[in-house]
Amino acid sequence: MLELAAVSVSIAGVPVLREVSLKVPAGGRVALIGRNGAGKTTTLRALMGLVSASAGRVMIDGEDETRLPPHHRPRHGIGYAPEDRRLFGSFTVEDNMLLPAQVLRLPADETRTRLARVYSLLPELKDLSQRKAAGLSGGQGKMVALGRALMVGTRAVLLDEPFQGLAPALALRYADALRRLRAALPDVAILITESNPELLRPLVEQTYVIERGEIAPA
User: Fold this and answer.
1) Under DSSP, is residue 184 helix (H, G, I), strand (E, B) or coil?
2) How many Cβ atoms are within 10 Å of 212's Cβ, its own excluded?
3) CA separation for the pair 3, 174 (Å, rounded)
4) Ramachandran angles phi, psi of 2, nearest 5°
5) What pLDDT was estimated at residue 96?
6) What is the pLDDT of residues 162-200, one digit of tens each?
7) Least confident of 49-63, 64-78, 142-156
8) Helices 93-103 and 108-121 meet at what angle, rounded to 10?
9) Which pLDDT band, with edges at 50, 70 and 90, does 218 fall under?
10) DSSP secondary structure string for all residues of 139-176
11) What is the value of pTM for the model shown?
12) How confident is the model at residue 111 (pLDDT cuts 50, 70, 90)?
């Protein structure tokens, strides 16, 4: 469903991605592994249309979306949880999660259904729902970012370094949440980046390795 075909990206004239190709099939569980600075975040940002490809194509369901703006991705049912969370500190947890649904102008009934699904998958967010995002820990913020991504990610969710900086107990809870997601929503594809492949081995079916902006040979 999601595909990068020989995508290259340069930032401020510096090559960051070099002919990166990968596929995330419908319902697939795919990991992108690499050291810090290898190009993992830029790969996800290219899929989301947040950086421009200087070469190659970004494909969604076989359609070339390379030149379309980022807001087209949520319309395709693609959610994104960035590494730095990007929450609005003055908003409550629930308001942060509702925001993309409001931007997409989802019907009220559909919004309530999706929010209830998020709370069923991530019950700790129900307890935090009225807390201001500015008062969350880093790990709690990552949970909220996952919940927000799931509000629009009905077909695919991109998770950028979700385990980075998490205490071991919270990392286990996050992994449990991903297992619940897999069981409850088997048709939702997941692309997840990480520096440590051991963390993702039980959660994914396919792994790509990126080194210096290139996909390493299998």
Assistant:
1) helix
2) 14
3) 26
4) -105, 140
5) 94
6) 988 888 888 888 888 888 888 889 999 999 999 888 878
7) 64-78
8) 140
9) low
10) HHHHHHHHHHHHHH-SSEEEESSTTTT--HHHHHHHHH
11) 0.91
12) very high
Q: How many CA atoms lie within 13 A of 65 on its CB side?
A: 25
Nearest-angstrom CA–CA distance, 116 and 122: 10
Tell me whether residue 117 is exposed, middle or buried, using C-beta atoms within 10 angstroms of its C-beta: 0 to 12, 13 to 18, 19 or more.
Answer: middle
Q: How many CB atoms lie within 10 A of CB 129?
A: 17
Which of 48-52, 71-75, 117-121, 146-150 has the weakest average pLDDT? 71-75
Give the integer Cα–Cα distance in Å for 41 and 193.
8
Domains recognised in the chain with CATH numbers = 2-215 (3.40.50.300)
121 vs 99: CA distance, rounded Å = 19
Residue pair 156/2 in contact (Cβ under 8 Å)? The answer is yes
Q: Where are the beta strands (DSSP E) in the chain?
A: 2-11, 14-24, 29-33, 55-60, 63-64, 78-81, 156-159, 189-194, 206-211, 214-215
Cα–Cα–Cα angle for 27, 32, 34, nearest 5°?
170
